[in-house]
Amino acid sequence: MGKKQRDKGKRGEYELERLLQKFGFEAWRGSKAQAGGDIKLPDVVLTNGNYTISVEVKRRKRVGMNDVMGGYEQAIEGAAGMIVAGMAEPPVGYVVAHRSDRSEWFVTMDMDSFVSLLSGKRFGVVGVLDTETNTAYGKVEALDEEDNG
Fold first, then answer.
1. 22-36, 52-66, 124-138: least confident range
2. Which residues contact 41 (CB under 8 A, 6 or more apart)?
3. What is the dihedral sign for C-alpha 16, 28, 24, 73?
4. Residues 6+ away with beta carbon under 8 Å from 122
5. Domain count, the chain
């Protein structure tokens, strides 16, 4: 990926961060320095105070389905990284926010997350750390209704 493409991605992260803040949410860009080491963090962290969401941002001339699906895996890794780094309590939700040139922002999530959102349940990643490789990865779980805070 060239410098122009990376810069466009960063501008997209800042743009989305400001948009979410405008809607009244706490949102900030994830940073490797926050987690330390090689733990992957999301492009943008979003919280409403009760629930944290890992947002992978895709900002391109044309965002295709392959971009979104690749971002989905990155969002899960970012959610796991936040948990392992102690930045969020599990479960952490995950979405891909994407915008093509001259288009509005879209958010893509899997069906389980969508249904959980509609039903008021928390669904997301429980972080797992592979101590041999020091790699964080995601294990997706839903909380039972009695566990739902």
1. 124-138
2. 30, 31, 32, 34, 35, 78, 81, 82, 85, 87
3. positive
4. 51, 91, 93, 116, 142, 143, 148, 149
5. 1
N residues, the chain: 149
Domain extent at residue 40: 3-147
Which residues lie below 8 Å from residue 102, measured CB to CB, with a gap of 6+?
Answer: none
The first and second tokens of residue 93, run together, are 């939700």
Q: To which H or E segment does residue 145 belong?
A: none
What is the per-residue pLDDT across 100-132, written as a single tens digit (0 to 9) for each? 999 999 999 888 778 877 887 776 776 665 656
CA atoms of 61 and 134, how far apart (whole Å) = 35
- CA angle at 128 for the pair 29 and 87, rounded to the nearest 5°: 35
Domain with 62 in it: what CATH number?
Answer: 3.40.1350.10
pTM metric for this prediction: 0.81
CA atoms 110, 111, 112, 114: torsion sign: positive
Mean pLDDT confidence for 23-28? 93
